[in-house]
């Protein structure tokens, strides 16, 4: 299985960090409880980042190799409602609103479409204020299909970055990457999954006015 091209720093940065902390421990910090705890937490965080990167790369490689799924008909609103407890935990103190038309039937792979919803939601969480953030998930019928929208009240996306948001490894704000982890693959994975369903994904955004991601799936 061929993996997607990977910028070298995506591997080098966490590995360098882990190696550096191991050197510090070997020089005697292991005997100092405070420094030991700090080093272990940092190494755990970097190893988790590497683990997620490998998972995302393997998923993208699979999507590149097998760009279609076995789809079954179901109600997408039920899938979102099943995810609501998880989404509210991820939202923290942010406000979460669900505006779902009932009985929205379409064909999908349940696990993969959950991945799309989760990736779009996590992206909204990363770009909204922890206390004042508001994320709305909407679902309604459109053009003989179903449209899912994830809207946030974050800072929005500039016209410079907007054409690239679905590019692999693209990140408009490296500071959020350091805080939340990730390699800029979440939106590209969502795009690949949606297109494998025969659907489309797009984003509407303006600086200072938040962003809305739209996913359309055929009925």
From TrEMBL:
It comes from the Bacteria. Keywords: Kinase, Membrane, Phosphoprotein, Transferase, Two-component regulatory system. The keyword Kinase applies. One of its GO terms (biological process) is cellular response to phosphate starvation. The keyword Magnesium does not apply. It is found in: Membrane. One of its GO terms (molecular function) is phosphoprotein phosphatase activity. InterPro entries: BphY/WalK/GraS-like, HATPase_C_sf, HATPase_dom, His_kinase_dom, HisK_dim/P_dom, HisK_dim/P_sf, Sig_transdc_His_kin-like_C. Its EC number is 2.7.13.3. It comes from Neomoorella thermoacetica. It catalyses: ATP + protein L-histidine = ADP + protein N-phospho-L-histidine. Residues 6-219 form the Histidine kinase domain. This is histidine kinase. Its main location: membrane. GO terms for cellular component: plasma membrane. It is an enzyme of class 2 (transferase). The lineage of its organism: Bacteria, Bacillati, Bacillota, Clostridia, Neomoorellales. The gene is srrB_2. Pfam families: HATPase_c, HisKA.
């Amino acid at each position: 299985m061929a993996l997607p091209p990977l910028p070298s720093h995506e591997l080098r940065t966490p590995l360098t960090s882990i190696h550096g902390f191991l050197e510090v421990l070997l020089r005697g910090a292991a005997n100092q409880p405070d420094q030991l705890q700090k080093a272990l937490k940092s190494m755990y965080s970097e190893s988790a980042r590497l683990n997620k990167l490998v998972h995302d790369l393997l998923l993208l490689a699979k999507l590149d190799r097998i760009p279609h799924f076995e789809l079954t008909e179901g109600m997408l609103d039920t899938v979102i409602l099943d995810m609501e407890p998880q989404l509210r935990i991820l939202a923290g103190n942010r406000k979460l609103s669900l505006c779902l038309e009932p009985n929205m039937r379409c064909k999908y792979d349940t696990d993969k479409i959950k991945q799309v919803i989760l990736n779009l939601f996590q992206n909204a969480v990363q770009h909204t204020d922890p206390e004042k953030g508001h994320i709305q998930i909407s679902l309604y019928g459109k053009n003989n299909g179903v449209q899912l929208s994830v809207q946030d009240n974050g800072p929005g996306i500039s016209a410079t970055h907007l054409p690239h948001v679905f590019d692999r490894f693209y990140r408009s704000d490296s500071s959020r990457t350091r805080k939340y982890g990730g390699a800029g693959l979440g939106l590209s994975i969502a795009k690949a999954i949606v297109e494998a369903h025969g659907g489309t994904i797009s984003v509407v955004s303006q600086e200072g006015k938040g962003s809305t991601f739209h996913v359309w799936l055929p009925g």
